[in-house]
Amino acid sequence: MAGVTPGIAEKLRQFYRAVQDEAIPDRFLSLLEKLDQAEKNADQTTRVKDSA
């Protein structure tokens, strides 16, 4: 990478690896599950309306 010192690039890699290793908070997982369920419900409602 032109103009980027190797030290900065390595520190960014280390930071990225540390973030990847962090667990996803339960609150966030719960929100994702609710969003998935809402999407499924919306899809089912759309299919019922389309077939009527």
UniProtKB/TrEMBL annotation:
Domain Anti-sigma factor NepR stretches: 7-39
Pfam families: NepR
Domain of life according to the entry: Bacteria
Protein name as catalogued: Anti-sigma factor NepR domain-containing protein
